[in-house]
Every structure is written in C-alpha cells, then in structure tokens.
Amino acid sequence: MDLAYAAAIAVISFLCGLGLSMLRTYTGEKAKNLATKEDLEELTEIVENIKDGNARGLTKLTEELRAHYSMRSAALEKRLEVHQDAYRLSMRMLQTVFAAEADHLDVGNEIRDWWMRNSLYLDKDPRAAFDKAWMAFVRHPTIMRAEVRVPAEDVIKNFDEIRALPRVLEDAMALPAIKLDLSDQIGANVPEELADKANH
To answer: DSSP for 141-167?
Structure first.
C-alpha cells in the first residue's frame, strides 16, 4: 500500500510539475504575444504618423511648386513681351539717334518711361546693355556738337553702345526654331513623307 501510495504521489507530483511547466510556458508565450502585439500597434502608429507627415509635406510642397511655376509661367510671358519691347526701342534709338532734337527728346522720354515700368523683367545682360545704350543715346547729340570737340573714337564707341543692344537682346531670347526635324527629336529615321508633313 505504501508503495502504491508513494507511486501515486510521484505521478501526481510529476503531473503537477508538468502542468506548472506548461502553464509557465503558456503564460510566457501569452506575455510575448501581448508584448509583440503592443509593439506592433506602437510601430504601426509610428509608421502611420510618418506617412501622414510625409503626405502633408508632399501636399504642401506640391502646392508651393504649383504656385511657383504658375507665377514663373505668367512672368515668362511678360518677360518675353518686355524683351520684344526692348528690341523695338533699340531700333527706335538707332533710327532717331541723329534725328532732330525734339524727336530725340521724345524717344528719350519714351525710353525713360518704359524703363521705369519694365527694367526688372529684363535678364541681367540685356538690362545692363539697355542701360548703357540708353545713356549713350541720351549723350549722343551732345558729343556730336562741334563745340564739344569729342574725339571721333569716343563718338564711335558711344554709337557702338547703342548698336550692340539689339544683338544682346537677340542672344538673350534665342528661341528654338519652329520647324521641327522629327528624326532629331526621336533619334530615328523618319519616312520622308511623314517628315515633310511635320515640317510644313
């Protein structure tokens, strides 16, 4: 009887030990799973916050770029117009540099008024060239007077300041040609009839 009782106690102890071990393993796994779940939720929240921040930043950047390019596009049109006007005025300077004093003064005033409204739209080099040409235009009648006695090379140099302006403006506004050569555009041989249609 004692042997059976001792064996039963040993079996019960073994089963209790096994049950406790399984319970410890189970609760350990449950705790790990819970910790992993909490970590996963925290990581998910961090990732979502980053995504939201990036989306907001991208939206803001997109709006800023859209506004910037919209303004640039509007300014580009105005700048093309101003450069064309500057070219027209450069021709007026050349046509009236030797004109009667009243005509010369009228053109000088027209240029001054135009300059005050438009000079900032000109690119750096055309702005400097226009300013030089305008000053040379204003000064030219004075240096041409016999009583002033300016050396001929100074008169020529002054006139060259006016003459240089159209070329500077042309270089600044070097637009691409309207006629397109399709083979250059796509880097392949284009049938002649297709190229002819595109270029006419």
So the answer is: HHHHSTTT---HHHHHHHHHHHHHHHH
DSSP string spanning 23-65? HHHHHHHHHHHHHHHHHHHHHHHHHHHHHHHHHHHHHHHHHHH
**Nearest 5°: phi and psi at 126?**
-60, -35
Write down the pLDDT at residue 133.
95
Distances 90 to 48, 104, 108 between C-alpha atoms, Å: 61, 13, 11
- Three-state secondary-structure class, residue 70: helix
- Do residues 130 and 166 make contact, with C-beta atoms less than 8 angstroms apart? no
Mean pLDDT by groups of 10 residues along the chain of 200 residues: 70 73 74 69 78 78 67 74 92 92 91 93 92 93 78 89 92 68 52 55
